[in-house]
């Protein structure tokens, strides 16, 4: 089946785990061009090569840096003419090696690093992909990786849970604005999956 025939897609966090699997699925479903964006250069290049350089390319992109996200989107549109899909999937699992942080002992410096990638980075991707789709008159699709953590509360994992609640809020707000242009904004909220991130 070629559900994505002729489509151009960006996948952030595409070098491993859910992002890598999605890149392969996009290729299977006929995407014309897939751009993998990640900070894991060796892994990202390997995934792109496994899919085929005629379809898939790798770009180094730290989503916590808005300028890098803008350049990612702009270069994709320049190379392929449009952007139809972005899967904003880059994120980090927790700010510290300690899983049992509560609100009373949060490491706020580490929290800032987590939020820079998992919330601010997500916002940058939605912002710039949305602009490209609006300007290109593309009725595209924006998908963000949230988590079941966006629907729960806990004494622990406070930083991670906050970041995923932020993603859910972003998706709800962006869908209202971008829906007027025919752009769908959704999130996926997986539970624990045996990805390299979880195993860490």
Automatic annotation (TrEMBL):
- Tell me which Pfam families the record gives: adh_short_C2 (PF13561)
Q: Which residues form the signal peptide?
A: none
Coiled-coil region(s) at which residues? none
Instruction: Name the InterPro entries for this protein.
Output: NAD(P)-bd_dom_sf, SDR_fam
- Which superkingdom? Eukaryota
- Membership in a protein family: Belongs to the short-chain dehydrogenases/reductases (SDR) family.
Protein name, entry field: (-)-isopiperitenol/(-)-carveol dehydrogenase
Q: Which organism is it from?
A: Quercus lobata (Valley oak)
């Amino acid at each position: 089946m070629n559900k994505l025939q002729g489509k151009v897609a960006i996948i952030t966090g595409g070098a491993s785990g859910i992002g890598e699997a999605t890149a392969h699925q996009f290729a299977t479903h006929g995407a014309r061009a897939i751009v993998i964006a990640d900070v894991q250069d060796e892994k990202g290049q390997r995934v792109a090569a496994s899919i085929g350089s005629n379809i898939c390319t790798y770009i180094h992109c730290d989503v916590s840096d808005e300028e890098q996200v803008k350049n990612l989107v702009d270069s994709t549109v320049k190379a392929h003419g449009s952007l139809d899909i972005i899967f904003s999937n880059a994120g980090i699992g927790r700010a510290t090696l300690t899983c049992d942080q509560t609100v009373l002992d949060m490491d706020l410096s580490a929290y800032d690093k987590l939020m820079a990638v998992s919330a601010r980075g997500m916002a940058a991707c939605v912002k710039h992909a949305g602009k490209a789709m609006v300007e290109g008159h593309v009725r595209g699709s924006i998908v963000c990786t949230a988590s079941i953590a966006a629907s729960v509360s806990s004494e622990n994992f406070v930083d991670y849970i906050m970041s995923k609640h932020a993603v859910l809020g972003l998706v709800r707000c962006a869908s209202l604005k971008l829906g007027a242009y025919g752009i769908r904004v959704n999130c996926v909220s997986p539970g624990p999956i045996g990805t390299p991130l979880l195993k860490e």
